[in-house]
Amino acid sequence: MTRYDAVIIGSGMGGLCTAFILAKEGMKVCVLEKNRQIGGSLQIFSRDKAIFDTGVHYIGALAPGQNLNRYFKYFGLMDALKLHKMDEDGYDVITFAGDENKYPHAQGYENFVEQLCKLFPEERDNLNLYIKKVREVCSAFPLYNLESTKKDFTNAWYLSTDTKTFIDTITKNKRLAEVLGGSNILYAGLENVTPFYVHALVVNSYIESAYRCVDGSSQITRHLSNSLKKMGCEIFNYSEAVKFHFKGDEIDEVELKNGERIAGKLFISGIDLAKTVDMVEGPQLRAAYKNRIKSLENSCSSFLVNAVVNENTFPYLNHNVYHYRIPNVWNGPMYDKAEWPEAVAVFPGTSSRCPGFAENFTAMAYMTFDEVKKWEHTFHTIPNYEDGRGQDYEDFKAEKAEKVLKNVFLRLPELRGNIKSFTCATPLTYRDYIGTRDGTLYGIIKDYNEPLKSFITPRTKVKNLLLTGQNINLHGVMGVTVNAVVTCSEVFGHPYLIDKIKATVD
Predict the structure, then answer these.
(1) In this prediction, what percent of the chain has a pLDDT beyond 70?
(2) What does each C-alpha distance from 345 to 55, 187, 230, 306, 408 come to in angstroms?
(3) Are 431 and 437 in contact (CB under 8 A)?
(4) What is the DSSP string of 294-318?
């Protein structure tokens, strides 16, 4: 039996980046993925020849010298990716029912202020203060900026300050406050819950620069997996890890659903935290630790309409649209079911096949798992398998899709009558394909009321079991990339690894 130096459970970006670092340092590594397609939220699918991203619709901080650009250079990605820069004067546009204005989030700190000042000329000082505070927070996270300095966050103000409250202290203009928080679906923002640092770290990367992946984000997965294979890493599909086997206090093997066992020295899980601790059936993890992990509340899920557009009918929009039917942008995850959807985000796709036009778009609205709970006993990851959950599930999706599209047409009327076909995704889709409990978008909720409770360290109570992925520090492409470095720092040492990465990219 082959014994690996490291066994990575889950092939999301966090798992792949972790595997890359370990393999680059000479370790014999394998990656286990339960599904056919690797990549987690980087997975894509196609309908009517149009490519859809399942989770990553745009990426920030990829311009030369910016933080993710430097990390991606280390992973050998920057020269390989096909990217398209989004509108510098408004990569995101926030809109409201009954208000014809289009409120932009622009690239570049000064430009961000200038574009909003066109609509809020009296708010320049407040907008400059907002940008100052965002940058202050980002500078306080060393790894976010590829620095090895260690900092004590215990009493940091941005951990114990919620985003909405903070923004309300920046400006008394209610519409501007809503605009600044208008892209909170990127982190499932909650009023009086989401810490300001989450908002700052996520939004800052796009203010620095915003790009789409041309023909889908799976190219990131493809290039990472090719690099891994060249370094001798093995990637196993249809290999769902279900149970750890121990020798003493350390894991010796992980058992797969088919009964096969994979032996290793180090095990790193990038899958759902609750599933990970459930794989430890013995006394190696105390019940109190397990209960703490399983009691952590997950962020909301979503409902997606993935629509193919008739050829050459919808000019490509080089920005996303966040449209609110209600004035409170922080109400999304707590929506009134009778009034759903209260907010819709629209992400136009970009393709090399039809420049100048969008061949597809994804419309996204919050949805809680309880809306699909009656079908929770069903499971499938079979492409084009439309009726696996019964006609009532299909009727449910059709009804919800109609409501989402109605809101899309109100803001983008040129799409009405020009949709060739569409498919839907629900929280069950996320659960099955991504492997997250309750179909959560971004893992556990970060709560400013208990800031340290949701800080999950990569090291567990089992000596040779580490964690990676979106539940460590921060979610998203930038978040899981940094998290992979955090995890691997537990293996090689913090200063050593950072210095090694910097030597590669600088």
Answers:
(1) 97
(2) 13, 13, 39, 12, 9
(3) yes
(4) HHSPBPPEEEEEEEEEPTT-SBPPS
Distance in angstroms (rounded) separating the CA atoms of residues 421 and 350: 17
pLDDT tier at 154 (50, 70, 90 boundaries)?
Answer: low
Q: Residue 271, CB half-sphere, CA atoms under 13 Å: how many?
A: 30
Nearest of 440, 458, 453 to residue 269 by alpha carbon? 458
* φ/ψ of residue 425, rounded to 5: -130, 140
The tokens describing 303, both together, are: 């409902």
Classify residue 446 by its DSSP letter: P
In tens, the pLDDT along 324-341 reads 998 899 988 888 898 899
Q: Report the phi/psi class of residue 200: left, alpha or beta, with left for phi > 0 and alpha for psi in -120 to 50.
A: alpha
Residue type, 355: P
The predicted model gives 30-54 an average pLDDT of 87
Q: How far apart are CA 38 and CA 329, in angstroms?
A: 34
Q: 81 vs 47, 75, 292, CA distance in Å?
A: 23, 12, 40
Contact between 9 and 19 (Cβ < 8 Å)? no
Two tokens, residue 103: 């409120």
For 385-435, what is the HEC assignment?
CCCCCCHHHHHHHHHHHHHHHHHHHHHCHHHCCCEEEEEEECHHHHHHHHC
Pairwise CA distance, residues 443 & 273, whole Å: 9
Domains contained in the chain, CATH given: 3-43+58-79+214-296+446-505 (3.50.50.60), 83-92+104-212 (no CATH), 300-441 (no CATH)
Instruction: Report the 10 Å Cβ neighbour count for 74.
Output: 21
What pLDDT is attached to residue 313?
A: 85
Helices 476-492 and 13-24: crossing angle in degrees, nearest 10, is: 40
For the sheet containing 343-348, what is the strand order? Answer: 99-105, 92-96, 320-324, 343-348, 360-367, 301-309, 419-425
Q: Which long-range contacts (CB under 8 A, 24 or more apart) does 494-502 make?
A: 494/148, 494/150, 495/148, 497/21, 498/143, 498/146, 498/147, 498/148, 499/148, 501/70, 501/71, 501/74, 501/146, 502/70, 502/146
pLDDT band at 156 (very low <50, low <70, confident <90, very high): confident
Span 302-318, pLDDT tens digits: 999 999 999 888 888 99
Residue 386 clears pLDDT 60, i.e. is over it:
no
**Banded model confidence at residue 241, pLDDT cuts 50, 70, 90:** very high
* Alpha helices by DSSP H, 119-231: 124-139, 163-170, 174-180, 196-208, 218-230
**What is the C-alpha to C-alpha distance for residues 349 and 363, in angstroms, rounded to an integer?**
11
The tens digit of pLDDT for each residue in 405-456 reads 999 999 999 899 999 999 999 999 999 888 888 899 898 888 888 877 777 8
Q: Which residues have C-beta within 8 Å of that of residue 166, sequence separation ≥ 6?
A: 133, 196
pLDDT at 406: 94
